[in-house]
Write a structure and sequence with these properties.
706 residues; alpha/beta; TIM Barrel; Rossmann fold; Immunoglobulin-like; ten-stranded mixed sheet; nine-stranded parallel sheet; 29% helix; binds beta-D-galactopyranose
Length: 706
């Protein structure tokens, strides 16, 4: 029952230390967070029955069970949890077993108040919610490790155990701690990094505002200060805090590596979560997991989701990932919590699969009656089985189980967006020329690719870029000389790169690259920016030339130094009228474009289409109707693949297929289709007949007419 860890069939996910998680053998996983401690035991039996009905194949259990599993220090009570695990095993449900350390029990902070986190203002946070621990606290880590050791030893060979879920959403509530323990750890971290205080002073530009340190002992965390703290100090504290969280994760992982080396590990990262560098954490997981909560009130939620899912898949090197949490309906933590209208939960679940997920799980299985999340939707709502949500949950479970062959398949992209966590952090510090939001800027560049139906990766700038014909660098503010050389090598070698404003400006310590803007990219871009010219909040300016339309947010005084001008600012920008807004520079065998402002979506799409055409990057399907997403996943054994069509528009759409295909979700009575009609929120999962299901003995797996 446990995931086949050593199978060589299907596509292996994560093979460090001999651990292999092979989704190809088990189909797509389906389920949710299971919190049985909230319920009397008789409810558990009904849970198992309903799980069977809903097609649940994996739950993540124990996430908030510490207080029940260790009610007082060193007194462990696992008997109740044995019954949970045994019940699940008996029902054929796999368990992604949480290490139970996400919410320490009250006795820990009672005995050790120093484990509680302190904010930048010096306020020590109280227990009584969750994640109330200082990431650097050795006491918290020791207690966590002790619990994990017990848990791992007890369930190492349990038939339900599929994988470990370490912690929960690291840095969700406690991103940074500013306590004395953290301060001491930070000083140790700085000593290791800089060696001498002189080096530190140079890196942090402490000659400014009389900040020079005489010794490491004088350095504090960047606590609340009269005005702007030193940005290099802040940047290092963000890095340090990320590593402190990772340290908690690795402390637990070390125990699991020792006690259950055969069981894969994961941790659920939050979407677009600046405190935790998803690229860096990926190296320490056997399979990557994401929690994603669309806001049904947001326009174009599929674009933000698309970007996040692509980032997740790319962080895992293209391997399948797990959607470990989403909501079946509304959440309860936004000011206004929109429910998912009929069909949206299905559509957005399929979007995750279409973009590489091999699991669709929810928070949570059964809706709580008490506590802070009782108004958050669940797979089994307060109203029980006879509810729209449970019916949709059951229908989705049936549908996902009907296409096990998707698991393990992968997709490739020729385009990639660049994202650097350090640059993101630095970009959003205070005292910049304008307030800039990395994720919104990245989405502005991602949207035209998504809407054109182009497959896209999201990569750090130091990634292996071979195989990508087109790179897009949205506002890559912080860029080391080495990474700039890497990008230059990419372009001279024949790559196509679009760079947008405020890129290549500072080094990893937030020090401006000398010699004029845009610093380390100046030669590559063939231009110089003499002055930044951010626009007022409601200011719009016109672009004229090969890119037409309006732009906002930013402009700058660009002087070409070899680059060709493709568009200029119009007369409504008197200061910069006629100055370059979009340029192109051919370098070696490649081309690099520069965008000195933020065009409105229509103009951005036109620019991106031009750049994409020059790079020779084709959409997954040409001529897609508006609002229809198309993605592909290919089977690892070369026996074909899948074309996913998702209708995010509010209207029905017809999509012409490149060749006759079978819709695996709704096989057509007349055989393979040449065209698919998608209702609003409709989904089709198509395969070429005779390939994807060939192994089952019948071209369509014997489903037709079933
Ligand atoms: C996540 C968390 C879950 C639950 C969920 C509600 O951030 O991991 O435990 O709180 O949000 O949306």
């Amino acid at each position: 029952m446990a995931v086949d860890r050593n199978s060589d069939s299907g596509e292996a996910v994560g093979d460090r230390r001999g651990r292999v998680w092979s989704p190809g053998t088990g189909g797509l996983l389906y389920g949710g967070d299971y919190n049985p401690e909230q319920w009397p035991e008789p409810v558990w039996a009904e849970d198992l029955e309903l799980m069977r009905e809903a097609g649940v194949s994996m739950v993540t259990a124990g996430i908030f069970s510490w207080a029940k599993a260790e009610p007082s220090p060193g007194r462990y009570e696992f008997g109740w949890f044995d019954r949970v695990m045994d019940g699940l095993a008996g029902a054929g449900v796999r368990v992604c077993l949480a290490t139970m350390t996400a919410s320490p029990p009250p006795w820990l902070s009672h005995a050790h108040p120093e484990t509680l986190p302190v904010d930048a203002e010096g306020v020590r946070k109280s227990p009584g919610s969750r994640q109330h621990y200082c990431p650097s606290s050795p006491v918290y880590r020791e207690h966590a490790a002790r619990l994990v050791e017990r848990l791992a030893t007890r369930y190492a060979d349990h038939p339900a155990l599929a994988m470990w879920h370490i912690g929960n959403e690291y840095g969700c509530h406690t991103r940074q701690c500013f306590c004395e323990v953290s301060a001491a750890e930070f000083r140790r971290w700085l000593r290791e990094r800089y060696g001498t205080v002189e080096e530190l002073n140079t890196a942090w530009s402490t000659a400014f505002w009389s900040q020079a340190y005489g010794s490491f002992a004088q350095v504090l965390p960047p606590r609340a200060a009269p005005t702007f703290p030193n940005p290099a100090h802040q940047l290092d504290y963000l890095r340090f805090s990320d590593e402190a969280l990772l340290g908690c994760y690795l402390t637990e992982k070390a125990v699991l590596d020792r006690v259950t080396p055969h069981v894969p590990v994961t941790t659920n990262v939050m979407p677009n979560h600046k405190p935790v560098n998803a690229f860096a954490w990926a190296a320490h997981q056997d399979v990557l997991s994401l929690d994603y909560y669309q806001d049904p009130h947001e326009p174009l939620p599929e674009v933000r989701a698309g970007y996040t899912f692509d980032l997740m898949r790319s962080a895992g090197g293209g391997r399948p990932w797990l959607l470990l949490e989403q909501a079946p309906g509304a959440v309860n933590w936004r000011p206004r919590n929109g429910p998912k209208a009929p069909g949206l939960m299905r559509l957005w679940s399929w979007q995750a699969v279409a973009q590489g997920a091999d699991a669709v799980l929810f928070f949570q299985w059964r809706q709580s009656l008490g506590g802070a999340e009782k108004y958050h939707s669940a797979m089994v709502p307060h109203g029980g089985r006879d509810t729209r949500i449970f019916r949709e949950v059951t229908e989705l479970g049936r549908e996902l189980a009907s296409v096990p062959e998707i698991a393990g398949s992968r997709s490739a992209a020729e385009a990639a967006l660049l994202l650097d966590w350090d640059s993101w952090r630095a970009l959003e510090l205070a005292a910049r020329p304008s307030t800039l939001n990395q994720t919104e800027l990245s989405l502005g560049h991602y949207r035209p690719l998504f809407e054109a139906g182009v497959a896209c990766d999201v990569l750090p700038p130091d990634a292996d870029l071979t195989g990508h014909r087109l790179l897009v660098a949205p506002n890559l503010y912080l860029l080391s000389e080495r990474d700039a050389e890497h990008l230059t090598g990419y372009v001279t070698g024949g790559g196509h790169l679009l760079v947008s404003f405020f890129s290549g400006i500072v080094d990893p310590h937030d020090r401006v690259h000398p010699g004029g803007h845009p610093g380390v990219l100046r030669r590559l871009l063939g231009l110089r920016t003499e002055e930044f010219w951010p626009l007022a909040e409601d200011e719009r300016v016109t672009l004229e030339g090969r890119v037409n339309g309006r732009a906002d947010l930013w402009s700058e005084a660009v002087e070409p130094e070899g680059a060709e001008v493709l568009a200029v600012f119009g007369k409504d920008h008197p200061a910069l009228a006629g100055r370059p807004a979009v340029t192109r520079h051919r370098v070696g065998a490649g081309t690099v474009w520069y965008l000195a402002t933020r065009p409105e979506p229509r103009a951005m799409r036109a620019l991106m289409d031009t750049v994409r055409a020059a790079a020779g990057v084709e959409p997954v399907l040409p001529g897609l109707p508006d609002g229809v997403q198309a993605t592909r996943r290919e089977r690892a054994d070369g026996s074909g693949g899948f074309l996913f069509l998702l209708n995010h528009s509010g209207a029905a759409a017809e999509v012409a297929l490149p060749e006759p295909m079978t819709d695996l979700l709704t096989p057509a009575p007349g055989g393979p289709l040449r065209e698919v009609r998608l209702e609003p929120s409709g989904v089709a999962v198509l395969s070429r007949p005779g390939t994807a299901r060939a192994r089952d003995g019948a071209p369509d797996g014997g489903r037709r007419g079933a």
